[in-house]
Specification:
Blueprint (H helix, E strand, L loop, with lengths): L1 H24 L4 H37 L2 H7 L8 H45 L12 E9 L4 E9 L6 E14 L4 E14 L6 E13 L20 H13 L5 H30 L7 H28 L4 H24 L5 H18 L7
Antiparallel strand pairs: 1-2, 2-3, 3-4, 4-5
Helix pairs in contact: 1-2, 2-4, 2-6, 2-7, 4-6, 5-6, 6-7, 6-8, 7-8
């Protein structure tokens, strides 16, 4: 539980800073901030539960080995293989919880967070814009409103600088503006009336002016949390059934389905890491007894393994989405590599056979320790 709390807090730190900026600088109510934080938890828990599984198994066997309890168990006729079933049961429980989160909780939370961000943007557009103040709360836009009519929620004499496309900066003047909300598309639209659009392109001698009776402008609040919504549901917001249906639909149109297929495999490959980490944590915990008495040694092993694993997962996902390698290889190769490595190390540990890489690491640590004790000189 401590590992789960610690890893989740580390991943949440970046988002907490973004949400704090919304609260302090954008005036978003604290209730919205807490709800957004709550909706982010399922996504992070699906990553941190496998991390905590590895940490807990590794530290358990590190402690058992350091206190010579493994030796006592073996002297009583209990082999290392007989100690594995409780670990596998624990790993299956964490695997089941992570799978449920990945299949159901994460898509629902992602969709709910986008809907909440739409509600925040809608509230800020209706109530957060002040008269005769340059407002830059919206992505790529600077708004200036001469007068706001609170009863009708309309604006008078609107000035807008639209720099969302740096190559084409628009300046818009309108006599009247009205904020419209579309909950289905999660969009906030500013409907401008009786105005003109002024455009200065890359050529300083070219100038365009377009007059309009009605002009719709889409608004997105600057949150950094990707609240933008297209007409199609985002693959990250889809359940397994919706992803499969989307794949069939795209195949019928002869369109690319790699992104959807990656999300399908991701829902199972990430939770499967719980089982892999449960197995590899046992021999790693036993081998890390070289630092007996140092509780940080097991944590160091955990962080190293997690870093390598998630780097491989990230690289495999990226290559699979680009079509550089087979999708199944990109999504499942890290699990397979670490599973084979874990079984190999487990057999070595059960037979009390030294693993060369651990011997080298131990010698390197001892060499550094002796060097530090001799004041920086190289020990003989």
């Amino acid at each position: 539980m401590l590992g789960l709390f610690g890893f989740t807090l580390v991943l949440l730190t970046g988002r907490i800073l973004q949400l704090t900026e919304l609260f302090v600088n954008k005036g978003v109510p604290l209730g919205y901030i807490l709800r957004l934080l709550y909706l982010l938890l399922p996504q992070f828990l699906s990553l941190t539960i496998p991390m905590a599984t590895l940490l807990s198994v590794l530290l358990t066997f590190h402690r058992l080995s350091g206190d010579n309890e493994i030796t006592a168990l073996k002297a009583s006729g209990i082999s290392l293989y007989q100690m594995i079933p409780p670990i596998l049961i624990f790993a299956f429980i964490t695997y089941a919880v992570t799978t449920l989160l990945s299949l159901y909780a994460v898509p629902l939370a992602n969709e709910a967070s986008r809907a909440l961000l739409f509600e925040v943007a809608s509230t800020r557009a209706n109530a957060g814009v002040r008269e005769r103040v340059f407002n830059d709360d919206f992505d790529g836009l600077v708004l200036y409103i001469e007068q706001v009519k609170p009863k009708t929620l309309t604006w008078e004499n609107v000035f807008i600088s639209d720099s969302r496309n740096p190559a084409e900066v628009f300046t818009i003047f309108a006599r009247e503006g009205e904020v419209l909300s579309d909950p289905q598309a999660l969009a906030v639209t500013l409907r401008l009336k009786n105005g003109s659009i002024h455009k200065l392109g890359t050529d300083p001698h070219a100038y365009q002016k377009v007059e309009f009776n009605t002009y719709d402008l889409r608004l997105y609040l600057k949150t950094g949390l990707q609240e933008k919504k297209t007409e199609e549901k985002h693959p990250a917001d889809m359940t397994l059934g919706e992803l499969i249906q989307s794949i069939h639909s795209l195949k019928a149109k002869a369109e690319d389905t790699r992104t959807q297929r990656v999300k399908v495999h991701e829902k199972f490959s990430i939770p499967f890491a719980c089982l892999v980490f449960g197995i590899i944590g046992v021999p790693l915990g036993l081998q890390s007894r070289a630092g007996r008495g140092s509780k940080s040694r097991g944590l160091s092993w955990s962080i190293g393994i997690l870093l390598i694993y998630y780097l491989l997962i990230s690289a495999g996902t990226s290559l699979a989405e680009r079509g550089t390698i087979f999708l199944e290889v990109g999504m499942w190769a890290p699990n397979l590599i670490f599973l084979v490595l874990g079984i190999h190390l487990l057999v070595k540990a059960a037979n009390e056979s030294p693993v060369l890489i651990f011997v080298w690491v131990q010698k390197g640590i001892e060499w550094l320790r002796l060097k530090r004790q001799h004041g920086g000189g190289i020990p003989g």
